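Objective 1b. Sequence-to-structure analysis of Phospholipid-transporting ATPase.
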Amino acid sequence: MTVPKDIPEKWFPLVLPLKRNKQKGLNGATSKKKRTEEERKVRANDREYNEKFQYASNCIMTSKYNIVTFLPVNLFEQFQEVANTYFLFLLILQLIPQISSLSWFTTIVPLALVLSITAVKDATDDYFRHKSDSQVNNRQSQVLIRGSLQNEKWMNVRVGDIIKLENNQFVAADLLLLSSSEPHGLCYIETAELDGESNMKVRQSVSVTSELGDQNNLASFDGEVVCEPPNNKLDRFCGTLYWRDKKYTLSNQNMLLRGCVLRNTEACYGLVIFAGPDTKLMQNSGRTKFKRTSIDRLMNTLVLWIFGFLVCMGVILAVGNAVWEREVGFLFQSYLPWDPPVDNFLFSAFLSFWSYVIILNTVVPISLYVSVEVIRLGHSYFINWDQQMFCSQCNTPAEARTTTLNEELGQVEYIFSDKTGTLTQNIMSFNKCSINGQTYGEGSDPLGPQPKRLDFTPFNPLADPDFCFYDDTLLEAVKVGDTHTHKFFRLLSLCHTVMSEEKSEGELLYKAQSPDEGALVTAARNFGFVFRSRTPGTITTTEMGRSVTYTLLAILDFNNIRKRMSVIVRNPEGRICLYCKGADTVLLERLHPCNQELMNITSDHLNEYAADGLRTLALAYRDLSEDEWEAWSERHRSAAKAASCREDRLAAAYEQIEQDMVLLGATAIEDKLQEGVPETIAVLSLANIKIWVLTGDKQETAVNIGYSCKMLTDDMTEVFIISGHTVQSVRQELRRARDRMIEMSRTRDGKEEGVEGCFMGNGFREGQGDSRGGEKQLQCPPPPPSNLMDNISGEFALVINGHSLAHALEADMETEFVSTACACKAVICCRVTPLQKAQVVEMIKKHKKAVTLAIGDGANDVSMIKSAHIGVGISGQEGIQAVLASDYSFSQFRFLQRLLLVHGRWSYLRMCRFLCYFFYKNFAFTMVHFWFGFYCGFSAQTVYDQYFITLYNIVYTSLPVLAMGIFDQDVPDQRSLEYPKLYEPGQLNLLFNKREFFICIAQGIYTSVVLFFVPCAILSDATQSTGVPLADYQTFAVTTATALVIVVSVQIALDTGFWTVINHVFVWGSLGLYFSIMLALQSQTLFGIFPNQFHFVGSAQSTLLQPVVWLTIALATAICIVPVLAFRFLKVDLKPQLSDTVRYTQLVRQKKRKPAGRSVGGAWRGVGSVSEGRLGARGSSRRSGYAFAHTEGFGELITSGKNMRLSSLAMATFASRHSSSWIDTLRRKKHSHTNTPPSASGESSPAPSCVSGSIPPLSNSSSVLSQTLNAGVLTPAALRSQGGDSPGSWTISLGAVQEALLRWKGRASASNSPVKLAE
């Protein structure tokens, strides 16, 4: 059930710390530090008593600033950044005239710009936090004050207040339910904001308070609650109510938690136990962590290195100054004396050092940080504007909620995903069934005509119009009165705990505790067996149009051990029958021997259903005689009244009666996945991304979803289940699994044969099931080296339960768990708590040093989302808690594929190219000053005009590199999705690392050497046509500056791989702007107005009119560019990267495309979806589909009548969940870089966006090179490709190199507009 749109739940960004002693008072003032709370005492209707404990109020404050504190606090935070402090230090140095040869405005202008932009961004974010806080805090709630209900804002609610809630209202704080308008103090809540589950949950007040329905009685209520302190356990509450000299035990069933919504209940009253930051919702929020990308961290390291390099250059030049002043400078003292403060050569060297620090600081200009923020902002807008990530059904676009993590989207190695609402739609559908050995609901031939959806209305006016079924043979069997079919659907209409309400004639609303039950009861309804209503002792149905009332004698309730439920009913004729449904693994063992033949047939059907990823159930019945019923009923009553071992005695009674049953058949329910989930997981796996599912559901549910979304397949080598209850047993199971993987990997590598046997029943390997060497296992050596585990070949998966995970997360077990789990292709963690989700993420971050991404949709995922490097929220029907805590949000899991493989990869590529070019151009610019120092007596004289120094990074070279950083791409988005292996360079951090940095620096230094010494050598002997020498400072400065701008412009033209109109305008426009500004600044006009500011008057005109100057510039440009160009041509020809090959094949296709032809990628795209076929045979495994979301005791609640209204109970029908094999993943990264012939092995295979059953699974050795070779589109050079994307020496892009070559040869047109890019 979704939250009504007229009640927008704009919850606060969850940023408060968990520890109360670090919190500030949430009522606007700072509270005193309090000792750690050990227990909580709350007295109803007594604010004076409760206030002495200084409990937190219900006010939420997530904002960081106010009008007074914003400026000082924000500036303090910004100057904690090393870069900002560094530039402030430079600014102070520039204000000292004795050491500064540059004007102060060259630093203060960009510094002020950076500080202002960041301040505006922080102020905007904080404004929205204030707005969100205000919206939540000002909500109205009805509080019982002095005997009357008064409207109070949420922020004014206090612990101990009694609140009245009405239907569809949000719960304002954590409340103890006191009374309700429903019988027996029951109320119904929706917890989507807390746990992502939309199915209704029941809460009940303590019996002694349930009678306090009148507000006068509640006003006199003075009970005292003593309970546990605030904690983050959503499913646990321990407390005691003391009232009238008696005490009553309190549990989680008595609590209404903040974030829940009251449903199907007119009104209820609750006592505030926890408020504000103490609520379980806030306690689960975790601490907001400031997230930085790996590139940010690397840049901080590089900045420190560059600063050290700057100091070294300053020391060298200062020493040179000292030597020069001592040996040569004294000769000039008579007409060139030292400035007054300088009285010796050592002091002169000291001042020279600081002067050179100022001059050479442009190796790390502050414009770098401005440009990075602008580029990230552009990437965020591209995500927001992407129409292919827009969900038209819910009118929700993708949203980048942060601008600081975009490039890290291109480096993800581990994805941690929730299940409910993230992978699934929460929609269950009755898909197939087996009745008396006959299977129904078979899929149609994909090549034949598609069957029509059955119309049940003429046959059954009470049918649900939304029910879909396509096999008319089952409907015909019902119509002709087939006995077995009638018994089958009669069982489904009776054996359940569903509640029903009939709002009007024929309009039935079902409310099921589990979506499975809702789907089964709805199926029975449509096939003529309609569940109408129930009382504590009866069930009324309509069977084939005839109303029938059954006497409900007993409900044998479900639990996780039994994995089944039964009902015993008496029909109107007086016959007693037991109906049972449950997991086939437990139900088939309890059948009468006469069912053997039918059981074999049904087992085959169950295998087929399980192979299709469906959730299966077996159905059986047993006729009971009156004597059998009476004898068992007596035993059941005595077990139910037992003072001790009640649960065990009931289980034994249930076991006794559930024997010798007759098999009816089996059901198969499709747990609907979100659209495109199997395809997305398959493609992400091909990109070497490992996906872990962390879910609170039990094992059966999680495993079925794993098979549905193709994380698990029967083609896998082995699936290990870890379910130990002690540290030692978990350690044994992990080690056995690891040893098994190593053993089977060696066997696989040695013989290339499938491994036989060693499976337990359904393809699973129970860790605790192998008792061989049990004691010896305790003496096992430590985990094998990680490199051994990394080389494991084969498809393995790991399923671990929550109680086992708790042991695996202990400090001494982490290494064991990580080494085993990370060797598996898939990991599923079941029954995990929100805290365990976060701990798993932190463990991988700690041990694997890999970039992690967490994706979820509920409040129980918030801790995980905040712990991961990147958090993604699904903005579906489960509330928006996860979205508000996330860095990125969208409405469908399938959009994750495009977010990572397209936007993430492009962002990483662009940022790496930007940084490489930026460091290159600034070293080329700055190092000229270093070489000039040896020619100017180390006097800190600049080579360039001071206006050129100021404008170089702000105007002349800023726009082209921004255009490249925002718009560049190596291959189009469709190719990025077709070739997931292109994603690997980001995971391996190949495009920008320390090696690449030093290469860029080396190229920049080489360029500076050429730009200084070539003009110096030529102009020293050159003369004008009039004979006047050209060897003057101003001519040299203009020549060098012009050559520099031209060289870096040509270089960025080579680096740009994707040309747009904006790129052309910025690159060539910046070049034209340089000449225009230079001519203007050196004009006679400005010199006449400001004679003391413009000293290069006329230099540009006179210099640029000399042919020798242009020849010098051309020669310097050629010497700088030709080696780079030659190297890149050779690299593309001899050792192309995968991106080079993909780009080349694309251009050739565009050139040779025929009207009727199709490309290799296009052929893939034309194939149907994974869910329409199977990837290989499944073998004979069968998985239990008894995955009800039941909680034990719901059957007892029904039979007690406590949940029955005087009128029939209104309960809304439910939505539920979807489904499909994991495509073979590519080889390990280490193997992918081995030198193997392209025909046998290569880098990747194009990942199909949709894979059909008619296409064989991709082999591990499938190669894009071999496929494109068969397509006839590769050159001999491309055939020499070895391995995957290797680090390019100059961060090469094929854009300018290969495309220029092809266009020169064939004039292939492959232009894309910037508008398309923005999509």
